[in-house]
TrEMBL record:
<keyword id="KW-0378">Hydrolase</keyword>
<comment type="similarity">
    <text>Belongs to the metallo-dependent hydrolases superfamily. Adenosine and AMP deaminases family. Adenine deaminase type 2 subfamily.</text>
</comment>
<dbReference type="InterPro" id="IPR006330">
    <property type="entry name" value="Ado/ade_deaminase"/>
</dbReference>
<feature type="binding site">
    <location>
        <position position="278"/>
    </location>
    <ligand>
        <name>substrate</name>
    </ligand>
</feature>
<keyword id="KW-0479">Metal-binding</keyword>
<feature type="binding site">
    <location>
        <position position="18"/>
    </location>
    <ligand>
        <name>Zn(2+)</name>
    </ligand>
</feature>
<feature type="binding site">
    <location>
        <position position="16"/>
    </location>
    <ligand>
        <name>Zn(2+)</name>
    </ligand>
</feature>
<dbReference type="InterPro" id="IPR032466">
    <property type="entry name" value="Metal_Hydrolase"/>
</dbReference>
<dbReference type="InterPro" id="IPR001365">
    <property type="entry name" value="A_deaminase_dom"/>
</dbReference>
<feature type="active site" description="Proton donor">
    <location>
        <position position="199"/>
    </location>
</feature>
<comment type="function">
    <text>Catalyzes the hydrolytic deamination of adenine to hypoxanthine. Plays an important role in the purine salvage pathway and in nitrogen catabolism.</text>
</comment>
<dbReference type="Pfam" id="PF00962">
    <property type="entry name" value="A_deaminase"/>
</dbReference>
<feature type="domain" description="Adenosine deaminase">
    <location>
        <begin position="11"/>
        <end position="326"/>
    </location>
</feature>
<keyword id="KW-0862">Zinc</keyword>
<keyword id="KW-0963">Cytoplasm</keyword>
<protein>
    <recommendedName>
        <fullName>Adenine deaminase</fullName>
        <ecNumber>3.5.4.2</ecNumber>
    </recommendedName>
</protein>
<feature type="site" description="Important for catalytic activity">
    <location>
        <position position="220"/>
    </location>
</feature>
Length: 326
């Protein structure tokens, strides 16, 4: 008899999760009522039923629309708390959470309400949920990089409690090089650097994120397998890749889980972790992702433990704190 994966789930870190992408339909309706905002669906079940995506853009359209319910500091606090409660159940002990400041600024939500709402809950996360956390400000690559730079300066001036910066939203047509000045400023300010690359875009975007942005970590990065020379480099440098296999299937970056390059990335010796990305939208928190890849690839206990260990060693925690988790 085989043991269910859940019975032996190893503790893990989650390194790739968008806090706005953790908005459950039920909470969306609660916040919509509280704020007098209308959602174009009659109830949570109809909204959840709309989570069928053709590609990254079709997801981003719905994700942006649902975000309209997030208006106040309390909304961001409630959103963050709900994620932490569910993540704790998934065995998450450390979470590096991204937020999209520009998605809220364009709607007139003050930056400090967003940051204070999220950070106020993260401050108490270790005590209340048993999860240590770090916060990442992610910039929209399909917006002008001057806007990203302006938002970064505002975060720095406000001494916002962020560990680093990221780059997300539509990838094709918006290469990493556009954001060189933003990442140079982040590096100068002592911030850590990650970037979505090679999700829908080519392997060259991964190379450019490393070389032009000095990214220390790559989000998704599944296109790396198209470029053996790049695979050899990221293996040699042990660049962490935060892979989101269920997200990639749901956004049709890969046709099916069985065809996902995760096993090839592991076999090559890359430092890969598995992550949820936007859990309710893709129907899977990180424990569900663990179950899905364990079943699809018949992963051994050792391989699952290696994925969990890589989630800590790929984190932005200092080495002594990583060692304490391993
Ligand atoms: C995202 Cl799956 C994905 N890709 C790019 N940007 C994003 N923002 C939220 N989820
Ligand atoms: Zn993502």
């Amino acid at each position: 008899m085989t043991t269910p994966a859940s019975a032996s789930r190893p503790p893990r870190a989650e390194l790739h999760v968008h806090i706005e992408g953790t908005l459950e339909p039920e909470l969306a309706f609660e916040l919509a009522a509280r704020n007098g905002v209308a959602l174009p669906y009659p109830d949570p079940a109809s909204l959840r039923a709309a989570y069928e995506f053709e590609d990254l853009q079709s997801f981003l359209d719905l994700y942006s629309a649902a975000m309209s319910v997030l208006r106040t500091e309390a909304d961001f606090a409630d959103l963050t708390r709900a994620y932490l409660v569910r993540a704790a159940r998934a065995g998450v002990r450390h979470a590096e959470i991204s937020f999209d400041p520009q998605a809220h600024l364009v709607r007139g939500v003050p930056l400090e309400d967003v940051v204070n709402g999220i950070a106020g809950v993260l401050e108490r996360s270790e005590a209340e949920h048993g999860i240590t956390t770090l916060l990442i400000a992610a910039f929209h690559r399909d917006r002008d990089s001057a806007d990203a730079l302006d938002v970064l300066e505002r975060l720095l001036a406000a001494d916002a409690p962020i560990v680093g910066v990221g780059l997300d939203n539509a990838e094709v047509g918006y290469p990493p090089g556009l954001f060189q000045a933003v990442y140079a400023r982040a590096e100068e300010a002592g911030l850590r650097r990650t970037a979505h690359a090679g999700e829908e875009g080519p392997a060259q975007n991964i190379r450019d994120a490393l070389d032009l942005l000095h990214a220390e970590r790559i989000d998704h990065g599944i296109a790396v397998v198209d470029d053996p020379e790049l695979v050899a480099r990221v293996v040699a440098e042990q660049v962490p890749f935060t892979v989101c296999p269920v997200s990639n299937v749901r956004l049709r970056a890969v046709p099916a889980l069985a065809e996902h390059p995760l096993p090839a990335m592991i076999e090559a010796g890359m430092l890969v972790s598995i992550n949820s990305d936007d859990p309710p939208y893709f129907g899977a928190y990180v424990d569900d992702v663990d179950d899905a890849v364990t079943a699809a690839f018949d992963l051994t206990r050792e391989q699952r433990a290696a994925l969990a260990a890589a989630s800590f060693s790929g984190s932005f925690l200092p080495p002594d704190r990583v060692a304490a988790y391993l």
